[in-house]
Specification:
Oligomer: single chain
Helix content: over 70%
Shape: rod-shaped
Distance between the termini: 105 Å
Mean pLDDT: 78
Largest sheet: none
Number of helices: 8
Structural class: mainly alpha
Number of strands: 0
Order of helices and strands: HHHHHHHH
Radius of gyration: 44 Å
Strand content: under 5%
Keywords: Membrane, Transmembrane, Transmembrane helix
Length: about 210
């Protein structure tokens, strides 16, 4: 038994062991040789360099396999992202169509411009302030229609004066509806907007919108 080291009171007793690095490497090398085939001339004459080259070859194969797996995972991720985007767009279209059908059922109207639906919603209210909002919004949409179709003028009135009944079948409706809007704008609360006038005015705007297929 190796000699026991001297120690003072309170210290832990230990033995001195030496580590034979050379012997350890030799044992490891013998194990590798026996693992690959004891007595094989190729193995028995192999060197450390040969083993390292062999291990390097294995690591290279593993690296290639890892690269292929990474590429496969990347392809799968891209494919999933494209499909998700496609189905997401389809889901949004389906949702928009369902909302459109809901508005049609709720308002009892055919498919319409969302702004026309908003105008119809305000005009269907029992609140006179909502009727005023509906008429003002309808007049704004009328102005956009006139500009889009090339009617010239700085104001809606000038654009309507430059139009003709031949190219604008609902010109009179546009005039009458716009006059009500002007009364709302200039007279404010002093103008009494009854439900009958409000509904008639909105109907005139609707005639114009239908002519220009808004």
């Amino acid at each position: 038994m190796p000699p026991i080291a001297e120690y003072r009171e309170g210290e832990i007793e230990f033995q001195k062991y030496g580590i034979d690095i050379s012997g350890l490497l030799q044992s490891l090398w013998d194990y590798v040789r026996s693992f690959f085939g004891a007595g094989d001339p190729l193995v028995s004459t192999a060197t450390y360099v040969d083993v390292f080259q062999f291990i390097a070859g294995i690591l290279e194969v593993i690296a290639i396999i890892g690269l292929l797996l990474s590429l496969a995972m990347l392809y799968g991720w891209l494919y999933a992202a494209v499909r998700l985007k496609k189905y997401g767009a389809q889901a949004e279209e389906a949702l928009a169509a369902e909302e459109k059908r809901f508005r049609e059922r709720a308002l009892g109207k055919e498919a319409q411009n969302p702004r026309r639906v908003d105008i119809a919603t305000h005009s269907a209210s029992d609140n006179p302030n909502d009727w005023r909002i509906a008429i003002v919004e309808a007049d704004i949409l009328l102005e956009e229609i006139l500009e889009k179709h090339g009617f010239v003028g700085a104001t809606i009135g000038e654009k309507l004066r430059g139009a003709s009944i031949e190219s604008f079948r609902t010109l009179n409706d546009a005039w009458e509806a716009h006059k009500v809007r002007n009364k709302i704008a200039h007279e404010g609360a002093g103008f009494e907007l009854t439900e009958r006038i409000a509904k008639q005015t909105i109907a005139q705007y609707e005639n114009v919108f239908n002519e220009f297929e808004v």
